[in-house]
Amino acid sequence: MNRIKERDMRNAELFDKYLFGELSVEQKIEFETQLKNDISFADAYQKHIKLIQTIHAHEQRSDLKKILSKIHRQEFANETKIIPLKEETFIKKHGRTFAVAASVAVVAVIGTIMVLSAGGYLLKQQSNAITDLKRDVTGLKYSQDAIIEGLKVAARKPHKNYAPANIEGTGFALNNKGYFITSYHMVKNADSVFVTNNTIGRSVAKLVTSNPSLDIAIYKIEDNSALKDLLFPFSFKDNTSDIGDKVFTLGYPRRDIVYGEGALSSSTGFNNDTTMYQISIPVNPGNSGGPLMDEHGNIIGVIRGKQTSAEATGFAIKSNFIKQTIDSLKDETIKDELTLSSKKSKLKGLKRSEQIKKIQPFVFNVMVYKK
User: Fold this and answer.
1) Which residues make Cβ contacts (< 8 Å) with residue 254, sequence separation at least 6?
2) What is the C-alpha separation between 312 and 22, in angstroms, rounded?
3) How does pLDDT run along the chain (371 residues), one tens digit per residue?
C-alpha cells in the first residue's frame, strides 16, 4: 500500500512539471511516449487533470460565496439575517446523511491536499486558457520610440512618421504574388491593415478570405513589386509532423524580427484540439500569425497562441488547414493564384542562418488599425 502511495506522489509531481512546462525537451518526449504507450500511466494522468479541474471549480464557488457575502455586508450591514430555508426540517430529515457525506468530503480534501502540496498546486494554479499573441501597442511605447528616433534622425535619411497601429503581429507569404496569411483574432474588425519588413517597406493589404473557427485570415499586399522576382523559399507540408521534430519560428514580438527554436511536443493542441500542434518554443505577443517551420524549411503551421500558465508552451494551426481554407474559396481565379507549393523546399540542406536570410523577405510585421 505504501509503495502505491509513493508511486502516485511521484506521478503527481511529474504530471505537474509537464503541465507547467518545467520538463526539458528530452523529458517531454519521454513523458509523451510513456503517455502514448502506457495505458495505466495515461489513465492516471487524466484522473490527475480531472482532480485539478474539480478543485478549481470548488475554489471558484468559494470565491463567489465570499463576494456575495461581502456585497451583503456592504448593502445590509446588520439590518437583516441570512436564514437557512427550512433549517429544522432539513436537519431532522437529512442530518445523518449530511454528516456521513461531510466525513467523506473531509477525508477526500485531506488526501487531495497531500497530493497537490507535493506538486505545488496550492501555490500556483494551472490556467485553462489559451492566450492570443497579438501585440497591443500603447501610446507610451511609441512616445519612447519617438524620443529614440529623434535622437538618431540627424544620422539618417528623412523618413515618414506613421500613426501607431492598435495591434501588431506577424504574417507570412503564401507565394510571391502578394498573398499572405495571419491570425484572424488579430485582424478581426480591422479598419485597415498594413505590412512591413526590410524588403517591402510599408504597404497596405486587403482581406481575401478568413476562417474564424481556425483563426486564419488571408490578405493580399497591394504593392508586391519588391517580392515578385524573388525566389519563393517555402513549401507547405501536407502530412502530419512527428513529435520530437525540431521546429523554429520567425515573428515580430518587437520591431525587429525574432527567431525561436524548439521541438514539436504534441500532435494536438490546447484541450486536445486536433487542428493544432503543441510546441516547446517560448512564443510572445506579436508572434500571432507567424510561420512554424521544420528544420528542412517546410511550413507546418501558423502560430496561434500559448497556454497562460506555461511560458514555454505554444500552439500552431496545422498547415493542412491552410489548404482547406483555400480549397473552400468559391472564386476559382483567386483559388488558382493561391495554389500552395508542396514541392521540395528551397531551404533543405542549408544551415539555419542561410535559411533565415531567404525566409525574412517573406515574413511580415502586420499592423492593424481599428476605429
Assistant:
1) 286
2) 8
3) 555 555 655 788 888 888 877 888 888 888 888 888 888 888 888 888 888 777 767 666 676 667 666 665 665 555 444 333 333 334 444 455 544 444 444 445 445 544 444 444 443 333 446 666 666 654 444 444 544 455 454 445 455 667 888 999 999 999 999 999 999 999 999 999 999 999 999 999 999 999 999 999 999 999 989 998 899 998 998 888 999 999 999 999 988 999 999 999 999 988 888 999 999 998 888 899 999 999 998 999 999 988 776 667 899 999 999 999 999 999 999 999 998 877 778 898 999 999 999 999 999 999 999 98
Residue closest to 177 by CA, chosen among 120, 236, 126, 219: 219
Q: What single DSSP character describes residue 345? A: -
| Rounded Cα–Cα distance for residues 241 and 296 (Å) | 12
> How many residues does the structure list for the chain?
371
Whether the model pTM is above 0.70:
no
The b-or-e profile of 63-87 (16+ CB within 10 A means b, else e) is eeeeeeeeeeeeeeeeeeeeeeeee
Q: What 3-state DSSP class applies to 105?
A: helix
Measured CA to CA in angstroms, residue 50 lies from 45, 266, 283, 342 at distances of: 9, 20, 27, 41
Distance, in Å, from the CA atom of 53 to the CA atom of 36, rounded to the nearest integer, reads 22
State the cell numbers at 167. Answer: 495591434
Nearest to 195 by CA among 359, 370, 368, 365: 365
Please provide the DSSP assignment of 148-199 as one string. HHHHHGGGS------PPPSEEEEEEESSTTSEEEEEHHHHTT-SEEEEEETT
Domains of the chain by range and CATH? 2-119 (no CATH), 129-371 (2.40.10.120)
Using CA atoms, how far apart are residues 32 and 25, in angstroms rounded to an integer?
11
Residue 177 C-alpha cell reads as 504574388
